[in-house]
Amino acid sequence: MSASSGIGVSPELSSAFASAVASQSTRFIKVKIQNESLVPDGTIPTGSGGFIDDLPQLQDILEDDIPAYILAFTEGSKWLFISYVPDTAKVRDKMVYASSRGALTKALGDQKFKDNIFATSKVHIHQYLKWDSTDATFVQDDLTPEAYQAHQRHLAAPKPLTARERELEEIRAAERASSAAYEGAGVRQSIVGSRAGMKWSDELGDALRDLQPGRLVVISIDPTKEELILKDTKDVSLDGVPGALPASEPAYGLYSWAQEEGASPHIVFTYTCPSSSPVKYRMLYSVRTRSRPSRCTHN
Predict the structure, then answer these.
(1) 164-298 placed in CATH 3.30.70.260
(2) Which is it for the CA torsion 133, 274, 267, 227, positive or negative?
(3) Which intervals hold domain ADF-H (predicted)?
(4) Which of 49, 116, 125, 262 has the most CB within a 10 Å radius?
């Protein structure tokens, strides 16, 4: 269920939350679904300590088998959204609360909530957090201070990289190393057109000099010679450029495009790198794209 199916925020809840945001004197607002509406179901004022000190008071207002939402004031003007859905709750209640949380945060203002927690028990069961990749949020087994502090540590810890992210990091590292080497030597280069950059074949040079409007020049790198070579030339429309580029290997493309008939053409540069390409080739091509190819038409 969602806001479109009839479950929305009641005026009483909107008013209670607005007042709590303004006064900063309310620590927790409990919210329940009643008669197809989200309504306030009790509040707890801020204590003399901080958020962690007040957290145990949730044990008094939550029920073991009944889901609820908690709007929790943390520090400054930040709020934490807690979706409390016990494992022992009725299946229908689980579905209703799971599908209505988006309507609640959207109505109150998503930007007001710095974090989301899904809790499955109000009592201390396990002190660990589980990552829910489908929701990009955190599932917490209990609502104790210890569990919340573990959650905060989890947020602050570096996230493990996927295989794809590790490959991208390797490419970025190669780019940084290459950039430092070039800048240290005081060299400026473009992908083509700079004498300090890579050489290109005579065949490629002829193709670039003959680059007419509506023509695509496809360029590849010979890794054994570190030389730019001509892979193909095609006369295509601008919309046809993506389909004319290689689908299984990295490549550069230079396309001459005249926006209007008789107008001076623009040179459009493209760089394609399929995810199936070997990492070493991705690194080689990526490093060479750091500089703009703006001088190519002058050579």
Answers:
(1) no
(2) positive
(3) 4-135, 193-299
(4) 116
